[in-house]
Amino acid sequence: QLQASGGGLVQAGGSLRLSCVASGRTFSRSSMGWFRQAPGKERELVAAIRWSTGSTYYADFGKGRFTISRDDAKNTMYLQMNSLKPEDTAVYYCASTYSITWPPARNPMYDYWGQGTQVTVSS
Prior knowledge:
seven-stranded mixed beta sheet; 11 strands
């Protein structure tokens, strides 16, 4: 089970930190990722992290603004989002995958999904 949190309303230029806690049982995964879906748009990958090595991947729109990280001891993944823009407004989802393909950029590669957390950036 994945539980995402940390969304909210923020002004353009502000920051938010999303968290995703994996719980319920011994949770194994190869990688985890953050996705987002804006109204009327397809769900897209924001960033991914390989759990064992900490290797990261970012979509172009997130490079230099977003940072994905994980805390293995807490079974938690984070997404630090800085310099937020109105176009970052979306529901953000966390997901995990057993796939060893890197980067795990496609939605069907993911096995488990969190419930989503709303991020709204006002101009």
